[in-house]
């Protein structure tokens, strides 16, 4: 055994991951060239340059596509302008990890000369660029990354968020399940990484303060678990009345399918954070997902005029229904437009001050929401997977009302 | 508990089909084929494309077999010029192939995770002593056992198998008998790759098909090879079944340690039996 293969492979994966980000972003930076000095004050026209940093490769690429579409749809519907400013978008690939995401943000700031950064799926990337933005005094609007710390312990005036927090979505489900006859016992399961821990913590806290009892919990190895049978057996033998989980992507597909295959779906109803059944995973889960209930701040089934118009325009343009990721990025354009109406400049301080005064965002597809500590206070919806005319959808069961980011 | 033991066998036989080729080629020629996981993933994508009906599922199996055979022969050819160089050079070549194949698969099939449905009639669940168990996995245990037995008998009981074992033990000596051991290597490489791609189709309904799955299964296969010992079919079989059980039972009994159980077992074997459970001392001492 002269070679230790896993070590070599990992090291090379890491190196390649880090190296692959550079040419992509460098190409981006050079292609758009100079023109950094936009007029500083509103009213006289000018250009605002936005760096849209979303995943174009890796496991989150599908989210990146949805995000980019949400951004482009808003701009297309509003003449590519924020008020008097013409919007110029520079796109960079966030990749999967901070090793690619942080350099991507750095490049759009330094080589791209952007005024505002929008995007970021990965929470570690959002936390990793904090100092970068503080030093350059530029504004970042996070349109996915849900880590609590982004707008709590690591809060900075330069980072705002139009998506959600992991705990906000999970706590709403905790409160709901405690009031729905499951207080006797729920089993909580999530992948063993930062977001999974945040979700389980917030769920447990809300569920227990509503009088519920968590009878068991498990953390599954993140990114490498494909077979959930051992954990499903644990759920069955725990005597739980219901199960709460947090999975997304490939893990969500496997978990939901196996939950049905091993016969749990008919005896222990499955609940989860909305990403379990959101976007492209739902058709892959198929009928195994029927009846699964989740909480989220959006579903394309929402019955309000803004959403109906949004879904219609989005579907007409891209041929598939929007996801929460599309809406989160659509709303980033929406709030930047409002902020630029009153901002005194394009620097981070002026924009942050202006964002603080935008008040209620009342034309969002997700329903009205407001900034609270730089992250949305918004309605969370209880959704159930139903078959609607041959297609699986997340139908609205109940509006759980406006929810804040849970206190740490 | 019964369900977990059953499941351990299903995963174990699947791992054996995946790992046996890797083990023999490594034991025989010192070629560590890091593209082995990519072959599995290729099979899984074939399953995702064609499965859904019996015809589609069997077509995917057939295509995976033919494609795996060709890919294995090609890989063998590519590593040939490096046979006098170090393990690292060969590993690097196959690692490069693995990356290229993974990227090609993304271009061809997209980067969304895909699920693979089991053939009709096996898509449901059956009741086993009161517990619900997916029918497909039960059948997989049977198919896996038959395949394992077939590979075992071929390698241990036939003239061709004797040639393979002799080449593992001492390839120079086999060469002096007038046998071109490059052909033996190419054949073993091709059949091992066939089995890996087939395992991808068979494992599809359990694991699905997604970017990154190749790395996950490659690591599992390497653990099996290390535990079982290089170049031994018996070792690969026992290693795969042990890993199947350890991985499922360990996670049931010690859910908090789920991430570590597998590698703890690996460490334990390495401490107690550094050459693996069935590793041959002769083939190691020549290195």
TrEMBL record, chain A:
Presence of keyword Transmembrane: no
Residues passing through the membrane, by range: none
Gene3D superfamilies: 3.40.50.2300
Name listed for the protein in its UniProt record: ABC transporter substrate-binding protein
Protein's organism: Pseudonocardia xinjiangensis
UniProt keyword terms in alphabetical order: Signal
Domain annotation Leucine-binding protein: ranges: 47-389
Annotated signal sequence range: 1-26
InterPro entries referenced in this protein's UniProt entry, alphabetically: BCAA_transport (IPR051010), Leu-bd (IPR028081), Peripla_BP_I (IPR028082), TAT_signal (IPR006311)
Pfam families with a match to the protein in the record: Peripla_BP_6 (PF13458)
SUPFAM superfamilies given in the database record: Periplasmic binding protein-like I (SSF53822)
PANTHER family linked: LEUCINE-SPECIFIC-BINDING PROTEIN, PERIPLASMIC BINDING PROTEIN OF ABC TRANSPORTER FOR NATURAL AMINO ACIDS
Sequence similarity: Belongs to the leucine-binding protein family.
Keyword Acetylation attached: no
Automatic annotation (TrEMBL), chain B:
InterPro entries: ABC_transp_permease (IPR001851), BCAA_transport_permease (IPR052157)
UniProt topology in membrane: Multi-pass membrane protein
Pfam families the record matches: BPD_transp_2 (PF02653)
Record family assignment: Belongs to the binding-protein-dependent transport system permease family. LivHM subfamily.
Keywords associated with the record: Amino-acid transport, Cell membrane, Membrane, Transmembrane, Transmembrane helix, Transport
Record's protein name: Branched-chain amino acid ABC transporter permease
Domain of life where this protein originates: Bacteria
Organism, scientific name: Pseudonocardia xinjiangensis
Transmembrane stretches, start-end: 6-27, 34-51, 57-79, 91-110, 135-155, 186-207, 219-243, 252-272
Cellular location(s): Cell membrane
Keyword Lipoprotein: no
Main location: membrane
Transcription regulation found in the keyword field: no
């Amino acid at each position: 055994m002269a070679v230790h293969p896993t070590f070599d492979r990992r090291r090379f994966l890491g190196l390649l991951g880090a190296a692959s980000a550079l040419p992509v972003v460098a190409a981006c930076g050079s292609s758009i060239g100079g023109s950094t000095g936009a007029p500083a004050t509103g009213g006289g026209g000018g250009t605002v340059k936005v760096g849209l940093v979303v995943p174009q490769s890796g496991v989150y690429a599908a989210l990146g596509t949805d995000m980019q579409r949400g951004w482009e749809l808003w701009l297309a519907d509003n003449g590519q302008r924020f008020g008097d400013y013409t919007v110029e978008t520079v796109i960079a690939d966030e990749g999967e990890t901070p090793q690619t995401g942080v350099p991507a943000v750095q490049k759009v700031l330094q080589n791209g000369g952007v005024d505002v950064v929008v995007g970021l799926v990965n929470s570690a990337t959002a936390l990793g660029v904090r100092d970068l933005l503080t030093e350059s005094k530029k504004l970042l609007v996070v349109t996915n990354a849900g880590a609590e710390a982004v707008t709590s312990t690591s809060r900075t005036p330069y980072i705002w968020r139009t998506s959600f927090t992991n705990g906000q979505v999970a706590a709403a489900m905790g409160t709901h399940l405690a009031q729905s006859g499951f207080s006797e016992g729920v089993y909580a399961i999530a992948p063993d990484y930062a977001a999974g821990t945040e979700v389980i913590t917030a769920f447990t806290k809300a569920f227990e303060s509503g009088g519920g009892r968590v009878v068991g919990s498990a953390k599954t190895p993140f990114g490498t678990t494909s077979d959930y049978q051992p954990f499903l057996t644990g759920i069955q033998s725990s005597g739980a009345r219901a199960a709460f989980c947090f999975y997304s992507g490939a893990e969500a597909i496997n978990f939901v399918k196996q939950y049905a295959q091993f016969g749990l779906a008919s005896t222990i109803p499955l609940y989860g954070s909305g990403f379990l059944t959101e976007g492209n995973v739902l058709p892959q889960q198929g009928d195994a997902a029927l009846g699964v209930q989740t909480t989220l701040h959006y579903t394309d089934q929402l019955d309000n005029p803004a959403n109906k118009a949004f879904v219609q325009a989005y579907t007409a343009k891209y041929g598939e229904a929007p996801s929460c990721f599309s809406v989160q990025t659509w709303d980033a354009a929406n709030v930047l437009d409002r902020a630029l109406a009153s901002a005194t400049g394009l620097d981070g301080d002026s924009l942050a001050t202006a964002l603080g005064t935008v008040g209620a965002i009342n034309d969002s597809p997700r329903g009205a929401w407001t900034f609270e500590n730089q992250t949305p206070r918004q309605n969370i919806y209880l959704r159930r997977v139903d078959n609607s005319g041959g297609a699986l959808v997340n139908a609205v069961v109940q509006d759980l009302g406006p929810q804040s980011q849970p206190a740490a | 508990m019964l369900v977990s033991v059953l499941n351990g066998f299903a995963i174990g036989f699947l791992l054996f089909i995946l790992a046996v080729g890797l083990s023999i080629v490594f034991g025989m020629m010192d070629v560590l084929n890091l593209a082995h996981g990519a072959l599995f993933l290729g099979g899984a994508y074939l399953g995702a494309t064609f499965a859904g009906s019996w015809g589609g599922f069997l077509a995917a199996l057939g295509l995976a077999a033919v494609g795996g055979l060709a890919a294995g022969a090609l890989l063998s050819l590519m590593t040939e010029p490096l046979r006098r160089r170090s393990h690292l050079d060969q590993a690097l070549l196959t690692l490069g192939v693995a990356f290229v194949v993974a990227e090609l698969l993304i271009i061809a099939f997209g980067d969304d995770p895909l699920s693979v449905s089991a053939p009709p009639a096996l898509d449901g669940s059956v009741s086993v002593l009161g517990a619900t168990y997916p029918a497909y996995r039960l059948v997989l245990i049977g198919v896996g056992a038959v395949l394992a037995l077939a590979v075992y008998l071929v390698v241990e009981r036939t003239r061709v198998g004797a040639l393979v074992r002799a080449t593992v033990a001492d390839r120079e000596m086999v060469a002096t008998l007038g046998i071109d051991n490059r052909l033996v290597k190419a054949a073993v490489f091709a059949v091992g790759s066939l089995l890996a791609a087939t395992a991808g189709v068979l494992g599809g309904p359990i694991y699905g098909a997604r970017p990154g799955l190749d790395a996950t299964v490659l690591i599992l296969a390497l653990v099996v090879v290390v535990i079982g010992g290089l170049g031994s079919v018996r070792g690969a079989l026992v290693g795969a079944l042990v890993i199947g059980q350890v991985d499922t039972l360990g996670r049931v009994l010690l859910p908090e340690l789920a991430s570590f159980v597998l590698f703890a077992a690996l460490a334990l074997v390495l401490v107690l039996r550094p050459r693996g459970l069935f590793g041959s001392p002769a083939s190691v001492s020549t290195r």
